[in-house]
Specification:
alpha+beta; 5-stranded mixed sheet; Sulfite Oxidase, Chain A, domain 2
Length: about 260
């Protein structure tokens, strides 16, 4: 009899993708009838919480995502999401090679920061070759270089009441009657302080390209790609994200994706 084997990563990926698929297929139902407090949404929220707890139980706080060798890099990193921001602010920063760009670290911190690219690049760095898994079903292996997010948080001195790290981005993901909607996302402090969570400014030995999120994107290697915002200009420490956007912790989460995209 053939022996059935399934890795923790495959098990959690399948579960997360399955729940996300249900969520996406039910988006119209959310909008048309169920509302935020509807039964299906409550079911999905409970299921997402189960995925989160299972990941923490099976993987632990510091378990690493698989890392690869340069021989495993078979193609350029496929971009996801917005690939050429059309926002005037971003285009102005790009025009002078991000000389005026700053990473602001605000919110529930003792020492707010405003960091240049050079300051980030002069901090201790980490390089890792990892696989990007997209919720759409594709994956790609690439080499990422950046500053561990934990080092930036340590410099800012996070206050005890902080629970989440919120990433504010320069790219407009949607235009509405009320104005442009910028991409944003959140992770908890466990993932924020994970050794593989980096603020990436390099890709495959070169500066991060525009289509992949220049000047800065976050890599959260134990989660799906939509949990890794690009074009970051501000990191905010918060105790809740209920009053930001749709109140679900990120642009895609506001549109039906799971808050926790663990794999």
């Amino acid at each position: 009899m053939a022996k059935f084997q399934i890795s923790r990563r495959k098990f959690l990926t399948a579960g997360s993708l399955g729940l996300s698929g249900i969520a996406l297929s039910g988006c119209d139902a959310f909008d048309s009838g169920l509302g935020i407090g509807g039964g299906l949404r409550s079911f999905l929220e409970n299921a997402n919480g189960l995925t989160y707890r299972a990941q923490r139980l099976l993987a632990g706080r510091d378990a690493l995502a698989p890392e690869f060798t340069e021989a495993d890099i078979l193609q350029p990193q496929r971009p996801n999401g917005v690939t050429a921001p059309d926002d005037d602010t971003y285009k102005g920063l790009l025009a002078n090679n991000y000389a005026d760009w700053r990473l602001e670290v605000t919110g529930l911190v003792e020492k707010p920061l405003s960091l240049t690219r050079e300051q980030l690049q002069n901090m201790p760095s980490r390089t890792q070759i990892t696989r990007h898994d997209c919720v759409e079903g594709w994956s790609c292996i690439a080499k990422w270089t950046g500053t561990p997010l934990s080092l930036v948080l340590d410099q800012a001195v996070v206050k005890p009441q902080a629970r989440y790290v919120m990433f504010h981005c320069l790219d407009t993901i949607e235009q509405s009657l009320s104005g442009n909607i910028k991409y944003y996302g959140t992770i908890d402090l466990i993932d924020a302080r994970h050794p593989q969570t980096i603020l990436a400014y390099g890709l495959n030995g070169k500066p991060l390209p525009v289509e992949n999120g220049a000047p800065l994107r976050v890599r959260v290697e134990r989660q799906l790609g939509y949990k890794m915002p690009k074009y970051i200009y501000k990191i905010e420490l918060v105790d809740s994200f209920a009053n930001v956007g749709g109140g679900r912790g990120g642009y895609w989460e506001d549109n039906g994706y799971d808050w926790y995209g663990g794999i």
